[in-house]
Every structure is written in structure tokens, then in C-alpha cells.
Amino acid sequence: MLPNESVLNQDIETKDRKAIITLSKNQQVVTFRSSIPISENLTLKAYKSNEELISEEWLIDVNPVWHIEFKGLESIGNVVVNGKLLPKFN
């Protein structure tokens, strides 16, 4: 997790800036929402695994009051969530 990031799902435990995720036998996906305080810059980095069994997907939902510019990783498309068009990265 990022510094000062807060997981919004009450059923997701966090420890040492990590979300503690447990998958059931046939479960392949876990989704959670988090909040990040306003900052001038934000750098997202995917978790690196030696086993390469983990993938991450980010949807960026920014209040229209704020301006955001993306640099580096290109968006792989957009997703509609609650009537809002959000850029998708992974």
C-alpha cells in the first residue's frame, strides 16, 4: 500500500502497509477500495512476485474538482463504475 493509503472495506485487514488477502479454494479475484490523501504527485507500482501469480488492476476515480495528468504507464481502457467513466491500468 502507498503511504497514508486507507483501505475502505471493513472486511480487509491491513498490517505494515499491506492488505491481508485470503482466497478461498476456488476464488481467483479479490477487489477492495482504498483512499489516498491529496498530493502533488502519486506513483503507483505493481507488487513484484517471484511466482508471477499476482496481478493488479487500478481504477482511478478523481473528484471533478481536481485536475489529474497521467505519465508513464498508458491506460488500457476505461470502465464505467456507478455511471462514471474511469481510466483502467494494470
Q: Keywords for this structure?
A:
globular, 26% strand, two-stranded antiparallel ribbon, 3-stranded antiparallel beta sheet, 7 strands, mainly beta, 90 residues
Structural account:
The protein is mainly beta and 90 residues long. Helices cover 0% and strands 26% of the residues. The chain contains no helices and 7 strands. The chain has a 3-stranded antiparallel β-sheet, with no helix packed on it. The protein has a two-stranded antiparallel ribbon with strand order 1-4. The protein is globular and about 40 Å long.
Overall body shape: globular
Low-confidence stretches: none
> What is the residue-averaged pLDDT?
84
Question: Could you state the order of secondary-structure elements as H and E?
Answer: EEEEEEE
Number of helices: 0
Main sheet properties: 3 strands, antiparallel
Describe the oligomeric state of these chains in a short phrase. single chain
Beta fraction of the residues?
25-35%
DSSP E strands, number:
7
Evaluate the radius of gyration.
14 Å
Strand order of the largest sheet: 5-7-6
Overall helicity: under 10%
